[in-house]
């Protein structure tokens, strides 16, 4: 039962944003910048986001060569260019908003390992560079085989991506939270949304426990979990798994790396190796919102860690986790009006 004061002042908003990940917080901050007097609340069902925003590998990606070539097999070239451009613009917006120092953004280099069966991709490098030439200030990819010996990595070839970087995910999210609070945005955790009821002039948001909040507009930014609120959308979850080693003495590489069409990715992290991926081993099993680890994929990550990334070296695993991404029939994100008062910013695809 609500008090008079609560009903009068504490449950009504100009806008409610559902989801406190990167997209949700960025949406709320952008709305507040455009209308500082607008009252905005961000709702998060857990104490922390449970998707991919705080559980990724800290890669700032536009797409590896083999990933883009694979996309060209399934999408028109103009759609592929549009996706790469969206990723690049999104990164630029994030860097401008936060500042590189506040999220430890660095460009130590992004590389892709090319196996012998993938060697034909090298013959299409110039084609892809030309395709992306209109949206990038220079060639995206170049061959970097000369760097392989010093890295100690088992690969036939190495491609450098000139427009990717790495960041500290925790600091990035902490800064977005701080910016939201500084601007007067309310962030309500432990606030699970059960559904919405839209009328001509208002949207009622039903919260677990019996509370109903109201807003003139609602932005849904819950990525893989969106169909829990709005059924029927073309959104499927995809679990990604990560492990981190103990510190590795004399680790011979820095920067971020991809291989196998972007399904695997690793980086140096404070003298450790962070390594994730393997979803392509079990697409059906990884189409889930459950956080449990897949033993088969974890074993595969450990095998590739010791055979490709650190060949001939034994290293202990210090930590493991998973995060939930969102996919659909295409890789295009869903950024649109769902109705007159409800808007979507979901299906943001893979993490990194």
What is the element layout, followed by pairings?
Blueprint: H1 4-9, E1 12-18, H2 22-34, E2 40-43, E3 59-60, H3 65-74, H4 77-98, E4 110-114, H5 125-131, E5 141-143, H6 148-151, E6 157-161, E7 165-166, H7 169-182, E8 186-188, E9 193-198, E10 203-207, E11 212-220, E12 236-245, E13 256-259, E14 264-269, E15 272-277, H8 295-309, E16 317-327, E17 334-337, E18 342-346
Parallel strand pairs: 1-2, 1-11, 2-8, 4-13, 11-18
Antiparallel strand pairs: 3-7, 4-6, 5-6, 9-10, 10-11, 12-15, 12-16, 13-14, 14-15, 17-18
Helix pairs in contact: 2-7
Q: Care to give the gist of this entry?
A:
The chain has 352 residues and is an alpha/beta fold.
Please, could you describe this protein's structure?
With 352 residues, this protein is α/β, with parallel strands linked by helices. The chain contains 8 helices and 18 strands. Strands 1, 2, 8, 9, 10, 11, 17 and 18 form an 8-stranded mixed beta sheet that branches. An 8-stranded mixed beta sheet has the order 5-6-4-13-14-15-12-16, sandwiched between helices. Strand 13 (256-259) and strand 14 (264-269) form a beta hairpin. The longest helix is centred in the first third of the chain and has 22 residues, at 77-98. It starts with a helix and ends in a 6-residue tail after the last strand. The model has no long low-confidence stretch (mean pLDDT 95).
């Amino acid at each position: 039962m609500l008090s008079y004061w609560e009903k009068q002042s504490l449950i009504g908003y100009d806008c409610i944003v559902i989801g406190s990940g990167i997209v949700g917080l960025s949406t709320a901050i952008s709305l507040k910048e455009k209308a500082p007097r607008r009252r905005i609340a961000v709702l998060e069902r857990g104490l922390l986001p449970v998707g991919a925003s705080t559980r990724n590998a800290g890669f700032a990606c536009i797409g590896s060569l083999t990933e883009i070539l694979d996309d060209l097999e399934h999408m028109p070239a103009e759609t592929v260019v549009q996706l790469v451009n969206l990723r690049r613009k999104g990164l630029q917006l994030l860097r401008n908003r936060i500042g590189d120092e506040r999220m430890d953004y660095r460009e130590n280099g992004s590389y892709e390992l090319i196996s012998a069966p993938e060697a034909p991709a090298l013959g299409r490098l110039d084609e892809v560079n030309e395709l992306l030439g209109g949206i990038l200030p220079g060639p995206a990819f170049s061959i970097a085989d000369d760097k392989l010996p010093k890295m100690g990595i088992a690969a036939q070839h190495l491609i450098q991506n000139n427009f990717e970087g790495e960041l500290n995910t925790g600091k990035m999210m902490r800064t977005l939270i701080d910016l939201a609070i500084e601007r007067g945005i309310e962030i309500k955790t432990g606030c699970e949304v059960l559904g919405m009821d839209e009328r001509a002039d208002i949207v009622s948001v039903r919260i677990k426990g019996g509370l109903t909040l109201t807003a003139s507009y609602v932005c849904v930014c819950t990525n893989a979990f969106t169909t829990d609120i709005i059924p029927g959308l073309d959104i499927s979850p995809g679990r990604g798994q990560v492990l981190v080693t103990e510190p590795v003495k004399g680790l011979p590489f820095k920067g971020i790396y991809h291989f196998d069409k972007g399904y695997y990715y690793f980086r140096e992290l404070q003298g450790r190796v962070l390594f994730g991926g393997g979803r392509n081993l079990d697409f059906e099993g990884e189409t889930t919102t459950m956080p449990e680890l897949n033993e088969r994929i974890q074993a595969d990550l450990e095998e590739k860690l010791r055979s490709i990334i650190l060949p001939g070296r034994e290293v202990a695993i210090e930590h493991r986790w998973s995060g939930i991404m969102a996919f659909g029939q295409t890789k295009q994100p869903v950024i649109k009006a769902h109705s007159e008062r409800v808007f979507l910013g979901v299906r943001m695809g893979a993490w990194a």
